[in-house]
Amino acid sequence: MSNVNWVLGGIGDIARKRVIPAIQAEPRSTLYGFVTRDAAKAREFPGAKTWATMEEAVADPAVDAVYIALPVAFHANAAITALRAGKHVLCEKPMAINYAQAEQMVAEGRASGRMFGVSYYRRLYPKLLRAKHLVKEGAIGRPLLAEANCHSWLEIEGREWLRDPALAGGGPLYDIASHRIDAMNFFFGKVEHACGIRSNAVHRMGVEDSATVLMGLPGGVHGVVDVRWNSRVARDQFRIIGEEGEINLDPLNSPELRLTTRDECRVENLPPHANLHYPLVENFVDAVLANGFGSVACPAEQGAWVDWTIEQVVRSQAG
Known about the structure:
Order of helices and strands: EHEEHEHEHEHEHHHEEEEEEEHH
CATH architecture of the largest domain: 2-Layer Sandwich
Number of domains: 2
Structural class: alpha/beta
Helix content: 25-40%
Number of strands: 14
Strand content: 25-35%
Largest sheet: 8 strands, mixed
Shape: globular
Strand order of the largest sheet: 8-9-10-7-11-12-13-14
CATH topology of the largest domain: Dihydrodipicolinate Reductase, domain 2
């Protein structure tokens, strides 16, 4: 195989802004078709096939890989259907509506022998890769604390399903905390224990408008993630504090990495790709074309770590 034929499940906001352009730009990829209940949405992509269901799409032997960009509640069924049909799968985050579904998805991925990744694209940010290297080489001494805040006002035009817990699972805990929890898993390994608080401080809707997560990570590192859809002051903060200094990545989506120790303070400029999903798609195609010898940025087994952490937060407050 020298080319990957992609089917995209869903043609929503993220798909249009990033995933479709990434597939179209990746030279070894072809946007083969869409799974959508509204075929009219695909008319602007001449030559692409459309199917009403994932079962119909993956029955086509020409399909190599499926990108799942559906509401969270539909991730598990779509992924399992594609994996059982022998297709490679790249799934939007979080993996599933609960950890039990995520576990089942992981099991199906292992049984299929196909590539199965989760779209935690920040793992491929140059500055996160650099920060991980700095931590590993001891630039800030023993890491002690990782903190992340992501605050904004509720703006979900085109993604109204995010308000519905039956489709989204939860609010910012599922939507934006998942990325920050995964970043901490990426730096330090699987969260060992977690708890947290969810609330509706401002907005009255079926999902929370704010969540605070407290985590214990390997090596005794404490992790704190605070996410909000109720702040008119936007924040996108991430820092790692160690015995001998700190790494500041504020704002997380910016190119700047600031290393501060007792001996120095320096800034490195490491911009991400203009399309944040492109490196993710490129990495996945690399893995698929390596015929079992490649690896994806976030394998499903590690993507499920986030679902486990989210479930601990939900359970801790319910208890």
